[in-house]
Write a structure and sequence with these properties.
Nucleotidyltransferase, domain 5; 6-stranded mixed beta sheet; 268 residues; alpha/beta
Length: 268
């Protein structure tokens, strides 16, 4: 069981909300009070009274032989989600390395695992993926990011941008599961979970020369996303493929170069 024992009002509410959202059993009490039977993890702030980092349960009051040891997770309010993830991982016996699986694409699926436990999952625009991954690995010792090799351009952009963490490129064949009724939209995230569990080849860069078809798809996206039916040229499409520009930035560059604005006729 998880015990929340803190006088920090903000930490208390943020942790309790996270635990309730995850459906995890827990109890709360004042710092320093006797811990209840079955306590496995205590969450507290740095300012709260100390709890024995590891030792037999303090609640039995008698023979403690064989009692489970107690782990203490210390966190500030800003670290509430991280604290809950760590506590849940301890509770489920999933202690281990933090591994992030990524199913690349224009909206990558991202799964964060600690040991065998999935502690967080996201699906975000490609432009937000690196920030999301860095945030999720910031406090983890020796984290590992595993990226599927399917969407070449987007995957290469992620590999090249994640220059401050260990990255493996994974063969993602067969990682997208069959989706039954009601599971639509979950495929990329579930594939990311499977990718996280597969060993890959360590890499620190990936250079891909975009094909004519890939460039055309980027140009088509620019027309679809523009407010004036504008299509960027091949040079700008190559910069988008290399991750130097987003489609929106390429459109702005195209307009500025032509001296036009959104009210002007479409320019190809």
């Amino acid at each position: 069981m998880i015990v929340v024992a803190t006088d920090d009002f903000e930490l208390y509410h943020d942790v309790v909300d996270e635990l309730r959202d995850r459906g995890v059993a827990f109890t709360t009490q004042q710092p320093g009070a006797e811990l209840p039977d079955g306590t496995r993890v205590v969450i507290r702030s740095p300012e709260d009274g100390a709890v024995a980092d590891r030792g037999p349960s303090a609640a039995t009051g008698g023979d403690t032989s064989g009692a489970a040891e107690i782990d203490v997770v210390v966190a500030t309010a800003a670290e509430a989600r991280r604290a809950v993830e760590e506590a849940v991982s301890i509770l489920r016996g999933g202690g281990g390395r933090t591994v992030v699986g990524v199913d690349p694409g224009t909206r990558p699926g991202i799964a964060v695992l600690t040991g065998d436990t999935v502690v967080a999952a996201f699906q975000v625009p490609l432009a937000d993926a690196v920030e999301t991954i860095r945030r999720e690995t910031a406090d983890a010792p020796n984290p590992l990011v595993r990226i599927g090799d399917g969407s070449r351009l987007q995957g290469s952009q992620l590999v090249n941008d994640l220059d401050d963490v260990t990255v493996e490129l994974v063969d993602e064949t067969g990682t997208t599961p069959y989706l039954g009724t009601g599971a639509r939209g979950m495929g990329d995230v579930l594939a990311a979970v499977n990718i996280a569990r597969l060993s890959g080849e360590a890499t620190d860069s990936r250079e891909i020369d975009p094909t004519a078809g890939e460039l055309q798809r980027i140009k088509d996206r620019s027309r679809q996303e523009s407010s004036d039916g504008r299509t960027i040229d091949e040079g700008l499409a190559r910069r988008v493929a290399a991750g130097e520009l987003t489609v929106e930035e390429a459109l702005e560059t195209h307009r500025a170069r032509d001296g036009t604005d959104d009210a002007d006729p479409a320019v190809d």
